[in-house]
């Protein structure tokens, strides 16, 4: 709890909240841009036009493009303060080992990501309703996707925290986050086996909609593959934090 409180205080100094607010606004605007077209508005009352499925696919695409970079920025900013101010050593003096500090950062930033995903998903749905979509909303699909999106973000966050902690130059993590944005988008077009082999490919694995020959299809995301991915990342992050404690101790 003490480590988490310290991380929250650091977040306030780093102005993480305004940065997240800007990202939420950007994701919502990019996702909902298509709602303004005349062709889209003409199908708001027609189930065959699939207005909600189209909006959800847009949200999946935008999330795959922006989430990897957001996660990299959050992890980099939260960890870089330790490199700049000899924070690792000072934390050890205060009784907080480096691995424990990394776990605290993951917990606090994970809570931020949960709130961010919940808010931006709600805003996208609210924008669809405000634009005039009268086709009944299948809320369960949106909720399940939001939960899966958060879990993928959290897994990548843990990997980026470890990378930022081990590499002083934060441009490395930022570069990987930028690369992840490209991979996240193109994973939606990759063969499923290739997407599952990449960490950022799980933005495609959890997608509840896919392009069919004539229309969008509601599909069952790869929950089993997501579970395996989360367990592997949890094991790697736990082992890395333990090794970090022994290395720095």
Strand order of the largest sheet: 1-2
* Tally of DSSP β-strands: 2
What's the tally of helices?
11
Q: What structural class do the secondary elements suggest?
A: mainly alpha
**Quaternary status of these chains?**
single chain
The succession of helices and strands, N to C, reads: HHHHHHHHHHEEH
Low-confidence sequence ranges: none
Helix content estimate: over 70%
Q: How confident is the prediction overall: mean pLDDT? A: 89
**Termini distance?**
21 Å
Percentage of residues in strands: under 5%
Task: Indicate the overall shape.
Answer: elongated
**Quick one: biggest sheet?**
2 strands, antiparallel
Radius of gyration: 19 Å
What distinguishing features does this structure have?
249 residues; mainly alpha; 2 strands; 2% strand; elongated
Write the layout of secondary structure elements.
Elements: H1 2-14, H2 16-32, H3 38-42, H4 51-84, H5 87-93, H6 98-131, H7 139-166, H8 170-186, H9 192-196, H10 202-205, E1 209-211, E2 216-218, H11 223-248
Antiparallel strand pairs: 1-2
